[in-house]
Design brief:
By secondary structure, the chain is α+β, with helices and mostly antiparallel strands. The chain has one domain (1-259): 2-Layer Sandwich (Ribosomal Protein S5, domain 2), CATH 3.30.230.10. 37% of the residues lie in helices and 31% in strands. The chain is built from eight helices and twelve strands. The chain has helices spanning 55-64, 84-99, 106-120, 126-132, 162-166, 169-185, 192-205, 211-222, and strands at residues 2-15, 22-39, 44-47, 50-51, 68-74, 135-138, 143-146, 151-159, 226-229, 233-239, 247-250, 257-258. The strands form two sheets. Strands 1, 2, 3, 4, 5, 6, 7 and 12 form an eight-stranded mixed sheet that branches. A hairpin with a 2-residue loop joins strand 3 and strand 4. Helix 6 packs antiparallel against helix 7 (192-205).
Length: 259
């Protein structure tokens, strides 16, 4: 049984009061992760054909009470700010439920995926974006989804350990201060240009962009587009350009689904 979940790019975020979620504004993208689930006597997870320790998927399977073989195929960079762990976990949840006839609701599977991500320290809400697709905002008064299918370009130079960042009290205090102010000032449905402008201000004020990311953003701006840094990865993403950055995708018009 196979399922797919889109990747996601978070433009700006701030911790939510619950502590295990975040407020923010994010895009689901068509590049994502396919999970193929089959019977197994003990859990095995592979990523692009190589056996791997993929903690959120393993936590999810334990939570669901299932041993399975999970083969993950990613068409986006893993660990680089695209929510790959969330996409893998959510796709796995959908496929496992169908393969083993668990009878869980979609909301229950999304919540189980979220719990697994939080327990593994790999995300604070990516699965809610990937479940729905589109432009997703969460300002503290519920999740809103807006249908978009605009082209998005990106280039990635490496990863930033999400668990290290989320576990850094000093950084997270600054994220709460700066990100909270940005989110409070965003309209309910920001334009992509406005969102990325404010996202780039957010990233720079936190001192996160590397020289390579800054150069990529400058290239986009010189071509008349708008760009920012994905949270959290050494990745630049952009709208309003064609052929400036290495990869081109679109905002995903739909969310995770069985294949």
């Amino acid at each position: 049984m196979e399922a797919f979940a889109p990747g996601s790019v978070t433009a700006v975020f701030a911790p939510a009061e619950s502590g295990d979620e975040s407020r923010g504004a994010s895009l689901a993208i068509e590049d994502g992760v396919v999970a193929s689930v089959s019977d197994a006597e003990e859990t095995v997870v592979t990523l692009d054909g190589t056996a791997t320790a993929f903690e959120p998927v393993e936590v999810l399977l334990d939570d669901l009470g299932v041993d399975a073989r999970v083969d993950l195929t990613a068409d986006l960079p893993v660990g680089c700010g695209f929510g790959a762990s969330g996409a893998a976990t959510l796709a796995t949840a959908l496929a496992v439920d169908e393969r083993f006839d668990l009878g869980a609701t979609r909301d229950e599977l999304v919540e189980a995926s979220h719990r697994a991500e939080v327990a593994a320290g790999t995300g604070l809400g990516d699965v809610f974006i990937q479940e729905s697709g589109g432009l997703v905002t969460s300002y503290g008064d519920g999740i809103r989804r807006y249908h978009r299918d605009d082209p998005v370009e990106y280039v990635s130079y490496g990863g930033i350990a999400t668990s290290d960042a989320l576990g850094d009290p000093g950084l997270m205090a600054e994220v709460e201060r700066v990100g909270g102010a940005v989110l409070d000032a965003l309209p309910a449905e920001p334009s992509l240009t406005h969102l990325l402008d404010r996202s780039w201000e957010f990233a720079r004020e936190l001192g996160l962009p590397t020289d390579q990311v800054r150069e990529a953003v400058a290239d986009v701006e010189a071509a008349g587009g708008t760009a920012s840094m994905a949270m959290l990865g050494e990745t630049a993403f952009a709208v309003g350009v064609d052929g400036v950055l290495d990869e081109r995708t679109r905002i995903a018009a739909e969310g995770a689904r069985l294949l």
